[in-house]
């Protein structure tokens, strides 16, 4: 009974909370408006700034998820200056960003301090500690600090407690709060210890800020930071209407570099761009290749010394260098508004990471492009990396998201990215913007504009039903798995047979040759990958001394279905399940004819097992 009464009270409080109108009038409205102009020089608020400021000034724990560049620093800087004294503690993982902010606040006559391992020596720390314990006297308004300091320095925490007992601790601003999510791509273990802030300083509101957060990340971060259940939550619009997204076929390395260089030199002459690569070695190789083709660029990764990185970034910021060829080490904290293109030499490990990385284009709101090059073999390469992470299942799920994004041909890419954040796009205006948002929509509108044009002029895509082929691929894999197991070619462990995607495609190709079908090898690679993405084919990893190999095998239930007696109910049930689980996406197959028409009786029989409504339309 007591717990249900408690729950009722909680529900009532939540209900009340929902009713707070953060756009309404507050006692501090006039002062806030005045500060915005006088201290920060802005005429008006950007979306959600006013609401978030009202919530944190109301002493709510507040979570704000706003895109990069939307002005999150103001959300704690302005409230921190509202009262004549008092200290705001800002936690950030990025020392360079903190240095910038401290400099710009100091310039405006605001007293700030920074505590970071590599910047602050012992005497400086002692001096800062002194200022922290009595902000009323020292006039200290902002303390920027790394999460490591909060986690490891008992001295710092005890000084903060003194300020707290003097009622001089205004709020904790946790910047880049997604770093507290263990599943996220930027996880920092020290962020977890920030949870103790809530217990040590129960009266001090927390303001968590990030640009990356799906619902699950948000929930995870709120739990880690022990934010109050009454926390106010804000989520900005994540759509980037000025970025055109596209995915291109990855050709062989030389052709790919030719293509990239041509784009950089011809389509974006003298405009700034970033090329993201998967590894340091790739960054070196790609930078070298682009340089040879006359592009002003340099590789940027964690192996490059700090000084070179700094001068490289300066050259790029000033326009002396066109492209930074980087690993993801080049990321958080870049503040260049006029990046016109972001290329992905390899797709990111998750769609959230892709959104962030590609989102570094066009911060100034002017047209920009994000192009990712993609091939099925990249997927297996990324998979073997994902396999090396602490949470394999999460890494795998993230990667499947990336894979589906690249493979899909039926839905707007921007819509797909917006749905990551649980958002849908505002209704589009006119056909012009339709073709501008992504390659998928561009192809659709080109087709709509010229419906009578010959196939060659319309598009390189053609539709076909590949369900029978998909089933054949599974059957082929199941047979090969079986045969290998019979021969004892097993891995000893979980992998039933050492069959790589490459091998399967070869087998399929030779089978199809006999069946007189004209599907390209490339199309088959995509088909097999689709089956992996649909979870009809599982991937096993085998660790060797030098690399991690990926092997394919069928799901046992599907294997028995495709190998079983065609008349058995288990068979059609299995196939039905497969057909339903195949994504309703379209398969890109270059130059493939409408193959498989005379695919033989067995295939025809298999096809008829699939309920017509779940047969997928597939573009060759
Ligand atoms: P974020 O942390 O969300 O990436 P920042 O706090 O670094 O964004 O702000 C990005 C830029 O936006 C800064 O140059 C800042 O001065 C500017 N800015 C913030 N708020 C406003 C506003 N209300 N009007 C105009 N510019 C703003
Ligand atoms: Mg920021």
UniProtKB/TrEMBL annotation:
Entry's Gene Ontology BP terms: double-strand break repair via homologous recombination
Pfam families, alphabetized: DEAD, Helicase_C
Residues covered by the Helicase ATP-binding domain: 53-231
Recorded coiled-coil stretches: none
Family matches, as PROSITE patterns: HELICASE_ATP_BIND_1, HELICASE_CTER
GO cellular component labels: chromosome; cytoplasm
Substrates-to-products reaction catalysed: Couples ATP hydrolysis with the unwinding of duplex DNA by translocating in the 3'-5' direction
GO molecular function terms noted in the UniProt entry: 3'-5' DNA helicase activity; ATP binding; DNA binding; four-way junction helicase activity; hydrolase activity
EC number from the UniProt entry: 5.6.2.4
Tagged with keyword Transit peptide: no
Enzyme class: isomerase
Cell division in keyword set: no
Swiss-Prot/TrEMBL keywords: ATP-binding, DNA-binding, Helicase, Hydrolase, Isomerase, Nucleotide-binding
CDD domains noted in UniProt: SF2_C_RecQ
Stretches assigned to the Helicase C-terminal domain: 264-407
Family the entry assigns: Belongs to the helicase family. RecQ subfamily.
Protein name: DNA 3'-5' helicase
Organism: Chrysochromulina tobinii
């Amino acid at each position: 009974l007591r717990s249900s009464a408690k729950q009722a009270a909680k529900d009532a409080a939540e209900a009340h909370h929902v009713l707070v109108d953060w756009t309404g009038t507050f006692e501090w409205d006039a002062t806030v408006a005045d500060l915005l102009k006088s201290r920060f020089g802005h005429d008006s608020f950007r979306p959600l700034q006013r609401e978030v400021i009202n919530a944190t000034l109301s002493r709510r724990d507040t979570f704000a998820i706003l895109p990069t560049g939307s002005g999150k620093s103001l959300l704690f800087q302005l409230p921190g200056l509202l009262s004549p004294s008092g200290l705001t503690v800002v936690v950030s993982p990025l020392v360079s960003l903190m240095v910038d902010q401290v400099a710009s606040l100091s310039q405006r006559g605001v007293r700030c301090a920074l505590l970071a391992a590599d910047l602050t020596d012992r005497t400086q720390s002692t001096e800062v500690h002194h200022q922290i314990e009595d902000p009323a006297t020292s006039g200290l308004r902002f303390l920027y600090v790394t999460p490591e300091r909060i986690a490891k320095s008992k001295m710092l925490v005890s000084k903060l407690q003194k300020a707290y007992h003097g009622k001089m601790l205004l709020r904790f601003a946790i910047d880049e709060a997604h770093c507290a999510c263990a599943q996220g791509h930027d996880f920092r273990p020290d962020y977890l210890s920030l949870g103790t802030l809530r217990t040590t300083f129960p009266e001090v509101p927390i303001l968590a800020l990030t640009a990356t957060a799906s619902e699950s990340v948000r929930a995870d971060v709120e739990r880690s930071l022990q934010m109050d259940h009454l926390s106010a939550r804000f989520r900005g619009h994540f759509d980037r209407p000025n970025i055109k997204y596209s995915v291109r076929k990855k050709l062989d390395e030389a052709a790919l570099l030719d293509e990239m260089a041509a784009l950089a030199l011809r389509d974006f002459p003298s405009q700034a761009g970033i090329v993201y690569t998967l590894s340091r070695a790739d960054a070196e190789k790609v930078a070298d290749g682009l340089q040879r083709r006359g592009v002003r660029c340099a590789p940027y990764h964690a192996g490059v010394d700090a000084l070179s990185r700094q001068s490289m970034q300066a050259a790029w910021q000033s326009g002396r260098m066109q492209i930074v060829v980087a690993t993801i080490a080049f990321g958080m904290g870049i503040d260049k508004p006029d990046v016109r293109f972001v290329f992905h030499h390899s797709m990111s490990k998750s769609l959230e990471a892709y959104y962030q990385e590609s989102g570094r284009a066009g911060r100034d709101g002017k047209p920009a492009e994000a192009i990712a090059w993609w091939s099925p073999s990249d997927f297996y390469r990324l998979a073997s990396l994902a396999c090396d992470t602490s949470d394999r299942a999460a890494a795998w799920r993230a990667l499947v998201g990336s894979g589906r994004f690249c493979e899909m041909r039926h839905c707007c890419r921007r819509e797909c990215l917006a749905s990551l954040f649980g958002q849908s796009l505002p209704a589009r205006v006119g056909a012009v913007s339709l073709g501008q948002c992504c390659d998928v929509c561009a192809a659709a509108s080109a087709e709509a504009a010229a419906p009578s044009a010959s196939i060659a002029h319309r598009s390189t895509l053609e539709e076909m039903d590949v369900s029978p082929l998909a089933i054949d691929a599974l059957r082929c894999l199941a047979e090969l798995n079986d045969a290998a197991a019979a021969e004892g070619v097993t891995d000893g462990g979980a992998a039933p047979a050492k069959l790589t995607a490459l091998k399967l495609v070869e087998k399929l190709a030779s089978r199809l040759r006999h069946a007189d079908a004209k599907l390209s090898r490339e199309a088959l690679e995509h088909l097999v990958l689709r089956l992996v993405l649909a979870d009809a084919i599982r991937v096993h990893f085998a660790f060797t001394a030098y690399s991690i190999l990926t092997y394919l095998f069928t799901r046992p239930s599907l294997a028995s279905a495709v190998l079983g007696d065609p008349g058995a109910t288990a068979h059609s049930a299995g196939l039905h399940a497969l057909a339903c689980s195949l994504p309703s996406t379209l398969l890109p197959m270059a130059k493939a004819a409408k193959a498989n028409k005379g695919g033989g009786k067995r295939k025809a029989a298999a096809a008829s097992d699939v309920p017509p409504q779940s047969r997928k339309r597939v573009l060759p």
